[in-house]
Amino acid sequence: MKLSVYGAAREVTGSCYLLEANKKKTLIDLGMFQGGIKEELKNKDLPFDPKDIDYIVLTHAHLDHCGRIPYAVKKGFRGEVISTKPTPRISELIMNDSAKSFERKAEEAAYLNKIKKSIKNSDLTPLYTKQDVAQALSHFSQSLNYNEVIDLGNDIILEFINAGHIVGAASAKLTVVENGVEKSIVFSGDIGNKNKPIVPNPSSPGRANYVVKETTYGGSIHMPIELAVKELYKTINETVNNNGNVIIPTFAVERAQEILYFLREGIENGELPGDIKVFLDSPMAIDATKIMSEFPDWFNDDTKQLIAKGVDPFIFSNLEMTKSVAASIAINDIKRGAVILAGSGMGDGGRVQHHLKHNLWRPECSVILISFASEGSMSRKLMDGVSPIYIQGHPIDVRAKIVKLSGFSAHADTNGLNTWHRGTGKPDTTFLTHGSEPNMNSFAEILRARGCHVEIPKTNDAYIL
Ligand SMILES: [Zn+2]
Q1: Ligand 1 centre from 268 Cα, in Å?
Q2: Nearest CA to 94 among 259, 349, 285, 353?
Q3: Distance 61 CA to ligand 1 centre (A)
Q4: Residue ranges of E strands in 285-380
């Protein structure tokens, strides 16, 4: 079999691998490159002919794993997309949000073109539209349970293994018999942090000949989640006592629901003031909360028990979900005791910008950073102590308290990644992907010290296995 690495090579986005075996071409993930104009430009070039691809095996619904599927369909992909059961619904939400942003950018370019006539043609066409997403969804043909084994034909077997991370997230194990020899390859997908509130801890994929493995946090150790929750409660209590508001920039899927889970629990057990007002100010996160609630069988045992007792893990009386723009704007009038969860997760766009504008300059307020923050993002600037911050062109002095809590990460840290890798035995080769080079090198050292053979592929590198 042949493995080609087409994305997430020495970077964290654009996950895409091609496995060719027994005359079948299977892509594992087809994610979006994200992070800036240079990254986004890479999305237009598919390094294969989509018409030739038989399957896309999708590990989970995050944009950097599913984001280019509608584009591939637009370019002629006619095969099947195979995932776990929750993934099509969550992918639909995420791909539609992405289409919306492409359509908006194209509209803005069209407007600029009208007044300046200097816009490139390529900028006037969205990478894909909501119609392309609808078309893509018609290719999501099979959705499976964890550990359900299916035969893709031509002596290729697929199994999804629970990866923790987000609802329905999986590692994909493909077992191929070629010339009478059986070989297995595991694509880790994104491996979850342990002891998360909604999804189970990651499961071991079992022994494999080859492993393609994410290393997002290959070089760091997270704060334990119990400690992160304590810090979250402490910051909220202090801020409310100081007559301020708390802003939490958050990703719409999973992270928002996890924070809601902990806020509900804190209010119920008296660790948070009973009179705080929690706002989920993100139409996408509101939709994500509803979709996740459709898949209670995919939650961990603690959350299933809560539901069995009649408790909604995410919804509580102090919570207001503000879908309309008017309801969102009305939050600006609240000066004390509001805990505002809003996107975007890295603070660069969306409604959180307005809340930062109204609260960042107030020393009595706090901003809690719980999400991954790429270089140059608003959250990263706040973490690095940059002041003033420019929001919609206006300088804002940062006087609010900035608190960074790594314990809420959806990704395993070095220890979690190492535990997961031990479960694969000692593979012939481990390919490290989906990480920055320093993180990859640091994790490679750990594996090499255990006698493992490690490769760190570059984009378009290919291997005969
Ligand atoms: Zn992910």
Answers
A1: 30
A2: 285
A3: 7
A4: 319-321, 338-342, 366-369
d(C-alpha 193, C-alpha 200), whole Å: 10
**Residue 198 DSSP class:** S
Average pLDDT, the chain: 95
Q: Residue 119 has what pLDDT?
A: 63
pLDDT tens digits for 141-174?
999 999 999 999 999 999 999 999 999 999 999 9
190 C-alpha vs ligand 1 centroid, how far in Å?
Answer: 5
Output the CA 362–ligand 1 centroid distance in Å: 34
Distance 377 CA to ligand 1 centre (A): 18
Ligand 1 centroid from CA 410, angstroms: 8
CA of 28 to the centre of ligand 1 (A): 14
Domains of the chain: 2-220+410-464 (3.60.15.10), 225-408 (3.40.50.10890)
Residues 6+ apart with CB under 8 A from 269: none
Confidence (pTM)? 0.94
Closest CA to 91 of 122, 110, 70, 113: 70
pLDDT tens-place string over residues 32-75: 998 777 888 899 999 999 999 999 999 999 999 999 999 999 99
Question: Do residues 258 and 280 make contact, with C-beta atoms less than 8 angstroms apart?
Answer: no
Strands 246-249 vs 338-342: parallel, antiparallel or unpaired:
parallel
CA of 62 to the centre of ligand 1 (A): 5
Q: ∠ CA(233), CA(235), CA(239), 5° rounding?
A: 120
**Ligand 1 centroid to residue 288 C-alpha, Å:** 15
Span 79-99, pLDDT tens digits:
999 999 999 999 999 999 999
Distance CA 29, CA 14 (A): 9
Q: What is the CA radius of gyration of the chain?
A: 22
Residue 33 has what pLDDT? 94
Peptide bond preceding 98: is omega within 30 degrees of 0, i.e. cis? Answer: no
Report the separation in Å between the CA atom of 200 and the middle of ligand 1, taken as the mean of its atom positions: 15
Per-residue model confidence (pLDDT) at position 117: 67
